[in-house]
Design brief:
Rossmann fold, two-stranded antiparallel ribbon, eight-stranded mixed sheet, 335 residues
């Protein structure tokens, strides 16, 4: 089957827009669906997403729209860059328009709070045989870095190995390198759960904890992630790669990290509601933290770090308790 060089991206936040820019510069025509009229008008008039990615010039081959009509789905590749907590409702709205042969690519990171399910499970639940045409992308990648053509490497994962070289062609160029994996659940969990640990790392920065404490916290947090993910079917080795430790390091230390910033402001003493409402972008780790806390309870896993972050975010626990919980003996070996 000969593929068209047309891609549709659902979600025009900073990440969706950065991906649209990268793909358009690879010679593809990009249809970019946005829910905000301000975004559509800005791209049409200025070739710039002034709301979510200001200062970045976009290609004229990117066509923004708010209309969710059938023409939008006439693409071989449907890329989803929608916040995780809205993916289910979006797919339910779109499912009758999504063709059976379209390749579905997820770029979002998170776990659905209500069901405690990763994104791949939501797709499989709503779209029959979705796993046969489903790809997920994850790794250490800030939107501005990708938009500015700074060297970036990510992981593409699919249970259908035939899709991976096809998907690579869309994304890859001299500045954007892709590696492949068949561990879809592991890649998605790595990209989702690291956001929670990054919130904790930001809290430590906010309360002016030491770098030594932060390093120990991130390392033990990764251990908790790996143990939980094993129960969910992920491969342990996946967390040693780009979508695991690579993404965790970037999100826990990077100045552009929304999740680290959320934690930092909480550590500084700001109220969670005011921090969340002060930005138009979504810190997915806030919602994921509750889901993974519930999962650790379901599988009876001792996770003092995950629990401490959950209690700070949802139970008004003192942020300084995060250090005390780090020092608890969880009975987990240091391997």
């Amino acid at each position: 089957m000969k593929l068209k060089k047309v891609v549709t991206i659902f979600g025009a936040g900073s990440w969706g827009t950065a991906i649209a820019k990268n793909i358009s510069e690879n010679g593809y025509k990009v249809k970019l669906w946005a829910k905000e009229k301000e975004v559509v008008d800005s791209i049409k008039e200025f070739n710039e997403n002034k709301l979510f990615l200001p200062g970045i010039e976009l290609s004229s081959s990117i066509s923004p729209t708010m209309s969710l009509d059938k023409a939008l789905f006439d693409s071989d590749f449907l890329i989803f860059s929608i916040p995780t907590q809205f993916i289910r409702t979006s797919l339910l709205t779109m499912k009758d328009m999504i063709g059976r042969d379209s390749i579905l690519i997820n770029t979002s990171k998170g776990i659905e709070q209500s069901s405690m399910k990763p994104i791949c499970s939501i797709f499989k639940e709503i779209l029959p045989r979705a796993s046969k045409r489903y790809v997920t992308i994850s790794g250490p990648s800030f939107a501005y870095d990708v938009a500015r053509k700074l060297p970036t490497s990510v992981t593409l994962a699919s249970s259908n190995s035939l899709l991976l070289p096809v998907a690579m062609k869309i994304f890859e160029n001299q500045n954007f390198k892709t590696y492949i994996s068949k561990d879809v659940i592991g890649v998605e969990l790595g990209g989702s759960l690291k956001n929670v640990i990054a919130i904790g790392a930001g809290i430590l920065d906010g309360i002016k904890s030491s770098e030594s404490t932060k390093a120990a916290f991130i390392t033990r947090g990764l251990k908790e992630i790996r143990i939980l993910s094993k129960f969910l079917g992920a491969k342990n080795t996946t967390f040693m790669g780009l979508s695991g430790i690579g993404d965790l390091m970037l999100t826990a230390y990077g100045e552009q990290s929304r999740n680290r910033s959320l934690g930092f402001n909480i550590g500084k003493g700001n109220k969670i509601k005011s921090v969340l409402s002060s930005t138009k972008t979504v810190a997915e780790g806030f919602y994921t933290s509750k889901a993974i806390y519930e999962l650790t309870k379901k599988y009876k896993i001792q996770s003092p770090i995950i629990e401490s972050i959950y209690r700070i975010l949802y139970k008004n626990s003192n942020p300084k308790n995060i250090v005390k919980n780090l020092l608890k003996n969880d009975g987990i070996a240091d391997i």
